[in-house]
Design brief:
Blueprint (H helix, E strand, L loop, with lengths): L3 H11 L12 H23 L4 H21 L12
Helix pairs in contact: 2-3
């Protein structure tokens, strides 16, 4: 939400011992990150299924995050959002 009071209210409603909720004003970054992470997850599963190791998966995820960050920045998102720091 663009309204920090509403964000805080929703955060407080859903936060508990087993679910941590974060707020963020970067709607473009949150929407892109939520959607594009799934592409990286599918690719990671393919890499694992092909028998490549943890280093290959880590490289894929690292490069994928870099690409998502660059795309997001071009579309007006805060790159820090993709690192969970926004």
């Amino acid at each position: 939400s663009k309204d920090n009071n509403v964000s805080k209210l929703i955060q407080d409603l859903f936060m508990n011992d087993y679910l941590r909720v974060y707020t963020n004003n970067d709607l473009v970054g949150v929407e892109l990150g939520g959607a594009l992470k799934n592409i990286i997850a599918i690719a990671s599963g393919i890499v694992a299924g092909m028998g490549y190791g943890d280093n290959a998966k880590a490289a894929l995820m690292t490069r994928g995050l870099a690409e998502i960050s660059r795309l997001g920045e071009k579309l007006g998102a805060d790159p820090m959002t993709f690192l969970g720091l926004g």
